[in-house]
Amino acid sequence: MKNLSKIKEIYNKGGNIIKYLKNLKNSSENDVMDILISYDFQAGSYIKIANNNPEYIQNYTGALSSYINNLGHFESIIEVGVGEATTLIPVIQKLHTKPADILGLDISLSRILFAKKYAIQNNVTDITFFVSDLFSIPLKDNSIDIVFTSHAIEPNGGKEKEALKELYRITKKYLILLEPIYEFATEKGKERMTEMGYIKNLYQTAINLGHKVILYKEFDFVINNLNPTGILIIEKKIDLSTSNTVDLVCPLSNTELIQHNNCYMYSSSSLLAYPIIKNIPILLSGNAIIATHLSEFN
Fold first, then answer.
1. pLDDT tens, position by position, 123-182
2. Where do the H-state alpha helices sit in the chain?
C-alpha cells in the first residue's frame, strides 16, 4: 500500500504489477492484495477492450447466455468478479427472462465504479453492485440461483479448493465457471499459466469436493489460445424451502447488515460497520470497522 506511486509508474510503462509485487515480497503466489492493486489500476481498460471487440463480446456472451437459458427457471443471478460488467450486462440482455435479482461483485472499487457507469450507458439500472472478494462473499448460504464467473478465479492459483467451496456455498441451483483450463492448454500455454500463477485442475477439485459436474469442456469462444477458456457447470440440489433471501450480510459473521444514512452498513450482531462509497458497499473483511456503540447514535 505504501508503494502505489511506484506501482502507478510501473503500470504506466506497461509493466506487470503482480509480477513486480511478487518479486517485492519474494513470493511465488498471487495474493489477494496483489490482485486488488493490479485490477484497480487496470480499471476502465476492459470497457475499452469490449468496445474495440464488439463481435467477440456478442459471441462470448451469447454463448454463455444460451447455456444459462437452458438451465430452466431462475430468479437471481450474480457474476463474481464482475469487473466492469462487460460480460454481465450483455448476458442479462440476452436472457429469455430477466431475473428479479441481479448482482455483481468485484474486489476493486474502481472497477465497480466503471461497471455502474457502463450499466447506465446500456440502460441497465437494476444491478446491485458491491465490493467483496470471492473467498468471503457477503451473502448467505444457498441464496443465489445462478452464480457465474468469467476469468475471475484465474489469478488465484493454489486456492482452487477455497474458491470453489465459497462459490458453491452461495449457490442455490447452478454454478457456472468460465475459467482458464490448464489441461486444455498447449505446452507454451501451460508454461505461461504457471508463470502467471493461474489456477489449475478446477474440474478435479470440483469432483474431489463431491460436486455434481454436468458440463465440462472448452468454451465456444476463446480470445487467447495461450489462455484457453473452459466452461464447467455444477448443479446443486437443495431443499428450496430452506434457501435464503438475496440480502447482503457481514462477510465475517454472516449476519444481517443495516444501511444507515447512505454512509455505512452495520451489523448489530457482529458490531462491525462497513463504509459505503458513491453508493457502493465496501464489504471486504479488511475494511471492517469496530463500532460497538454505533447503534446508539443516529
1. 998 999 999 999 999 999 999 999 999 999 999 999 999 999 999 999 999 999 999 999
2. 4-12, 17-25, 32-42, 45-52, 54-69, 88-94, 109-121, 160-170, 187-196, 202-208
Instruction: Calculate the alpha carbon distances from 179 to 101, 190, 211, 218, 259 in Å.
Output: 24, 14, 17, 10, 34
Q: What is the pTM of this model?
A: 0.92
Q: Quick check: helix, strand or coil at residue 298?
A: coil
Whether the CB-CB separation of 46 and 83 falls below 8 Å is answered with yes
Q: What DSSP state is assigned to residue 290?
A: E
Domain ranges of the chain: 4-47, 53-242, 258-296
Distance CA 59, CA 207 (A): 29
- What is the rounded distance in angstroms from the CA atom of residue 150 to the CA atom of residue 74? 19
CA distance 229 to 239: 32
Angstrom distance (rounded) from CA 290 to CA 270: 9
Q: Which amino acid is at 109?
A: L
Residue 267: name the closest of 278, 280, 283, 279 by CA: 283
In 3D space, the residue among 102, 97, 87 whose CA is nearest the CA of residue 221 turns out to be 87
Domain at 53-242, CATH homologous superfamily = Vaccinia Virus protein VP39 (3.40.50.150)
175 touches 167 (CB < 8 A): yes
Q: How many CA atoms lie within 13 A of 265 on its CB side?
A: 24
Reading the block at residue 225, the C-alpha cell is 489460445
Residue 86 has φ and ψ, to the nearest 5°, of -75, -15
The pLDDT-based confidence of 244 (bands split at 50, 70, 90) is confident
| Per-residue model confidence as pLDDT tens digits over 183-212 | 889 999 999 999 888 999 999 999 999 999
Secondary structure of residue 132 in the 3-state scheme: coil
Comparing CA positions, the residue from 276, 272, 273 lying closest to residue 262 is 276
